[in-house]
């Protein structure tokens, strides 16, 4: 690819992202599905198929997408509140475990039925387990539920899920990257956990170091140092076969112990927004819509089984908080939404194509995950908006 | 009065303030300073959004509620240095003992130490009233004096001195 067209392609990408973001804002919907769809629209299989210049899956877009994952997880770590989890451990624990057992269990079962082996089943389980923090929090604000009691179990379970996904990603990335046999997988998981322990040590002991690092009156040096440390550690993790997302999560946690949390959130949120959008765009860019259509049966099966599962687990999660039926139902409706983390798992699945996963299996999981997220993000927000209609069916 | 504070990941902080009668106010402060105010009329009621403020508007409202905000007085127009003194307004009621008296005979200055710098009478303002100015019911007296002197003036005008 010539350098002059590379810049043009990146420009076209950002212009397209900006345009659909505007559209999503007008329609009052989450922009995430729009970024994916515009990525699909501009890729080789769609725009390229009709002979028009498509946006190619170039190095910048790929690295940009990885930066998107890194900053999404960095923020998750930055805002991850272990104290909140511990202070409210009984209720969050109960609701979180119900959520984990029901949805991960359903995913594992369906995955095993479809592919007949453990790794694909684990990937499907991850995809259907993780609700979307980004979309749910936005909907909570839009609907004003943030002021209501149902926001407590919702936010609590999301925190629980965040912690699970950090551990899950470490294991699954190691399994996907670790080669076929059990010994290699065990070694890869061993390295992953060793790296996590190393990062935890940094989190525990490094607060003073991070404080000194960020102690500068210049907003320029501040942001450069924060980005430098985060991306370097995430990159180092990836180089030794550990998930960059997990590394970024722990770096975020380390920074959250400093007094600069608020400044970091303010300074880095625009970087996160830009690269997260690139990540969602990239997801669309490497998605062949015909493969997604081909996986329609898998997607349908997943939607039909997992939407009621989340509704049910969410309802009992609300009950664990002693909420009434109406509010518990709302917790269930809100949890239906899936999004960014399912896509990160989809990207992990794709990275194992041809090595630990058969190419066809990897592509099916990827396409199913993309289609599933598109359906579930729309379904989840629609269900939340229409909660009034569901509440009428409750016995009074 | 209890305030519950919690983190909203990715958004900011949430504060819940319990008022009387089961009503509560929920404030969501976003990372960018935006501030949303909700009112809930009872434990079973849904939150109703009252206000959506930008950071600066929220700060202004906050300082008003705190009692820290006031429009700055045009001090330059006052010829006397105020020092410890403050300016207060006292209304002369119909039954007030000073009604019908002149400023001199009311002994406001000698009794209380305050100076009447202006009298607001309906639409009209009598600035720098002289000793012969007669006080009428409904007059609004603008007085300069210390806090104690102002209290004495209020007592005198009300007739409870």
Which labels suit this protein?
heterodimer; A: 396 residues; mainly alpha; Na+/H+ antiporter like fold; 80% helix; B: 161 residues; alpha+beta; Alpha-Beta Plaits; 2 domains; five-stranded antiparallel beta sheet; 9 strands; 18% helix
Task: Assign the CATH class of the largest domain in chain B.
Answer: Alpha Beta
Cα(first) to Cα(last) distance of chain B is 38 Å
* Radius of gyration computed on alpha carbons of chain A: 21 Å
Number of domains of chain B: 2
Tell me the overall shape of chain A.
globular
Order of H and E elements of chain B:
EEEEEHEHEEEH
**What's the CATH architecture of the largest domain in chain B?**
2-Layer Sandwich
InterPro entries (chain A): Cation/H_exchanger_TM, Na+/solute_symporter_sf
Domain Cation/H+ exchanger transmembrane (chain A): 14-381
Transmembrane segments (chain A): 6-25, 32-54, 60-80, 92-115, 153-176, 188-210, 274-292, 298-318, 339-359, 365-386
Main location (chain A): membrane
């Amino acid at each position: 690819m010539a350098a002059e067209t590379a810049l043009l392609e990146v420009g076209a990408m950002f212009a397209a992202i900006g345009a659909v973001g505007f559209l999503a804002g007008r329609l009052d919907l989450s922009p995430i599905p729009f970024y994916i769809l515009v990525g699909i629209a501009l890729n080789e299989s769609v725009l390229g198929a009709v002979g028009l210049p498509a946006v190619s899956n170039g190095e910048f877009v790929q690295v940009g997408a990885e930066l998107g994952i890194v900053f999404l997880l960095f923020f998750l770590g930055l805002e991850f509140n272990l104290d909140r989890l511990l202070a409210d451990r009984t209720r969050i624990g109960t609701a979180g475990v119900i959520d984990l057992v029901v949805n991960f269990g359903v995913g594992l079962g369906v995955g095993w039925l479809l592919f007949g082996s453990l790794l694909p089943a684990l990937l499907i389980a991850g995809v259907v387990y993780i609700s979307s923090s980004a979309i749910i929090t936005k909907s909570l604000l839009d609907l004003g539920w943030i002021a209501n009691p149902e926001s407590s179990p919702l936010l609590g379970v999301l925190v629980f899920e965040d912690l699970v996904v950090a551990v899950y990603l470490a294991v699954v990335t190691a399994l996907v990257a670790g080669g076929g046999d059990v010994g290699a997988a065990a070694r890869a998981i061993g390295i992953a956990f060793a790296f996590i322990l190393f990062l935890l040590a940094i989190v525990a002991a490094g607060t003073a170091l991070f404080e000194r690092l960020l102690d500068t009156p210049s907003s320029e040096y501040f942001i450069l140092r924060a980005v430098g440390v985060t991306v370097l550690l995430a990159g180092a993790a990836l180089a030794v076969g550990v998930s960059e997302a997990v590394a970024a999560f722990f770096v975020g946690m380390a920074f959250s112990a400093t007094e600069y949390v608020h400044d970091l959130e303010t300074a880095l949120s625009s970087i996160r927004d830009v690269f997260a959008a690139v990540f969602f765009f990239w997801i669309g860019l490497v998605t062949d819509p015909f493969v997604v259509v081909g996986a329609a049966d898998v997607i349908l099966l997943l939607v039909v089984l997992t939407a009621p599962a989340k509704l049910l687990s969410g309802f009992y999660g609300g009950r664990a908080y002693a909420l009434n039926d109406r509010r518990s139902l709302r917790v269930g409706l809100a949890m239906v939404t899936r999004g960014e983390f399912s896509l990160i798992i989809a990207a992990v699945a794709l990275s194992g194509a041809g090595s630990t996963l058969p190419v066809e299996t990897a592509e099916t999981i990827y396409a199913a995950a993309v289609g599933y997220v598109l359906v579930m993000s729309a379904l989840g927000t629609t269900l939340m908006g229409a909660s009034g209609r569901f509440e009428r069916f409750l016995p009074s | 009065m209890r305030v519950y504070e919690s983190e909203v990941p990715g958004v900011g902080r949430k504060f819940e303030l319990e008022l009387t009668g089961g009503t509560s106010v929920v404030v969501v402060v976003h990372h960018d300073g935006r501030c949303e105010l909700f009112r809930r009329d009872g434990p079973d009621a849904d939150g109703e959004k009252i206000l959506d403020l930008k950071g600066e508007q929220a700060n202004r409202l906050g300082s008003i509620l705190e009692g820290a905000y006031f429009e700055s007085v045009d001090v330059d127009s006052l010829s006397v240095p105020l020092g410890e003194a403050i300016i207060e307004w006292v209304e002369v009621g119909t039954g007030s003992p000073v009604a019908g008296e002149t400023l001199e005979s009311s002994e406001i200055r000698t009794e209380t130490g305050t100076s009447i710098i202006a009298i607001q009478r309906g639409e009209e303002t009598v600035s720098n009233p002289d000793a012969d100015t007669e006080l009428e019911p409904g007059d609004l007296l603008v007085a300069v004096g210390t806090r104690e002197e102002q209290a004495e003036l209020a007592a005198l005008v009300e007739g409870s001195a």
